Prior knowledge:
The complex is a heterodimer of chains A (229) and B (296).
Chain A: H1 4-37, H2 40-71, H3 75-108, H4 117-140, H5 143-148, H6 153-173, H7 178-210
Helix pairs in contact in A: 1-2, 1-3, 1-4, 2-3, 3-7, 4-6, 4-7, 6-7
Chain B: H1 15-22, E1 43-54, E2 57-68, E3 72-76, H2 83-89, E4 100-108, E5 111-112, H3 120-126, E6 127-130, H4 141-151, H5 157-170, H6 174-177, H7 190-202, E7 208-212, H8 220-233, E8 238-242, H9 246-252, E9 255-261, E10 267-274, H10 275-278, H11 285-291
Parallel strand pairs in B: 3-8, 3-9, 6-7, 7-8
Antiparallel strand pairs in B: 1-2, 1-4, 4-5, 9-10
Amino acid sequence: MPRQTLDREIHHLQDEVLLLGSMVEQALLNTIDALKRRDLVASRRVYNEDDLINEKRYAIENRVLILFATQQPIAHDLRLLAAILEVITELERMGDYAKGIAKINLLIGQDDTAIPIREISRMGDLAVGMLHRALSAFIAEDVSMAYRIPREDDQVDELYNQVYRKMVAAMIADPDIIDHANYMMWVVHNIERTADRVTNICERTIFIATGELLEIDGSDDEWDDGEEA
Amino acid sequence: MNIVRPQTLRFIPSDSEVTKIQTQASIRIGEKADGLELKALPIKMAAEELSVFYGKFQALRDISLDVPEKKITALIGPSGCGKSTLLRSFNRMNDLVQGSRIEGQVLLNGKNIYDPDVDVVDIRQQIGMVFQRPNPFPMSVFDNVAYGPRLYGIRKRSFLEEIVECSLRQAAVWDDVEGKLDQSGLELSGGQQQRLCIARAIAVEPAVILMDEPASALDPISTLKIEELMETLKEDYTIVIVTHNMQQAARVSDFTAFLMIDENRAGTLVEYGATDQIFTNPKTEQTEAYVTGRFG
């Protein structure tokens, strides 16, 4: 069976993408958990460990480019490897969102103003769940799953809007908490963007399976987010 | 008019910030890719300041090249750059060319194969060769593979049978020829013939296999089969391959040496490194031009 080398390399890269994905999932869960527990040490750890995510992303990118140069991937192989380049960029950016949330926890420091942690936790669980299944669909090239997952983004957006309204009301009631409320807006913004980027991963899954480059409706325009019809 | 920009609206990071950004996770393409570093590997063969002459003509000039053990090393370069000459000098095939002589050394396990006390037949047992055109002997498949072992004195039929089957299996051609061992080797397809020749080469248990364009006379699928075979052979053997097909060198080899002719038309070594690096980030302009197809 010819091309065993390329097949082996591709399987290895798929494993590496899953590994990078799980690093990002863990970073997101840890950063929200640290915010919930107001654990600054844990947030510092998430902040620092973003470097590991970046390194892993570069290592995968390097490997893909070497395969382009040395193995001349064609057709499905080519689409898959090109999609991996896109997906690792999305994952790395999600890692930055986790890092951003960690930074906010560090900025809040000892300030004990209330945090809308119920919504934040729920949003985090939803986003990480979407991400996890999107990566499974990516590896399995499951097109119908790739179409289904982005619809779940509505729940994340709804929670985002709830926090938004809560924070605006709080700011009006007490202008002293404007900074704090702003930080909270950034936290939910980061989670909301994470869920949006899951859609991009799903789009790449469809691309691998069908060759079609398309945008799944609705959720990727940053400036549409949070707007209610 | 001077425009005063408030600090907070500065979107361009300062130099110190740029430095900080750059010192975070970084990797240079092609390097560290699979951790292959020539210096860290055991060296099976080496050319040391090797020059080869055909009469007055100098075909190779001052080549120094380490061939790591149980890896695939590819020699690439434009026609006439001396890559085949270099390969042939690795098992003294050039001795057969009238008027040829060498300067410098070719080492196998640290011993110069051109030393006067070295037996050429012994060298060719340790360093096998596979040629461009499949060249089975006009005899049965079995006798093709048993030829070398018989030459080295093995007579016992059961032992020969064992060697033949083992070699054919290693060369990934057993399934094609099982039950046809008495058939002439010349009746096989081109790709099968070439794998038969590889089986013949490994039947005498060489340490090194030299391959001179082993797939250039084959169809694409047979070519890929030979390439996959090389990948499994390198578990046991050190392989040096000459190929015109740059993509093939990229696909199969761990290390790549790029040769070019100098102003006196002698072949010189331009660049030698991990294949991943040579094909993604070559260090010299000539290598870049050659691997991107802009010259040669």
